[in-house]
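Write out structure tokens for Transposase (putative) gypsy type domain-containing protein.
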Amino acid sequence: MSQKVNRETDENGKPLVTVGGNYSWVKGEVRDMASLFVDTESIAELGDLALFVREGSGPRLRFLPCSDQDRVYYRGEGWELFFVYTTLFLDIGVRFPFSEFQCGVLNQLKCAPTQIHLNAWAFIRGFEILMEYLGTKPLLEVFFSFFQVKGVRKGGKVTLNSV
């Protein structure tokens, strides 16, 4: 991915990063944050996640280091790559392959996994955990009776709020 990054500093010496492309919708603190996973050693810290490769003839997934110029909101060409916050895996507990329920939510919302805001992923995962605790299967109809889509715009993040 060839994005042009200009490195300047503010009055406190903090790096300012301006990225080429139409990313004016991205907040400054997100625009300025580079990945901590820029080498194979840092990727190894992800443990089993970094080793995941889907068996069979389907798509394969590999965790690769980012460059210091890559940003999580970049759009890749096609399906070759996507950027995602590690919070999705380490804190929220989403795993590959996605569960049937998670795939159902993505299909219902007609969006890619990277379009779902982290807080919305927390709602999705939390609902799954609650239903598991209650000994019942998570159902889309029940989930969407508790949560609704909020602020959808083409190419933006999909957020949810409680009903």
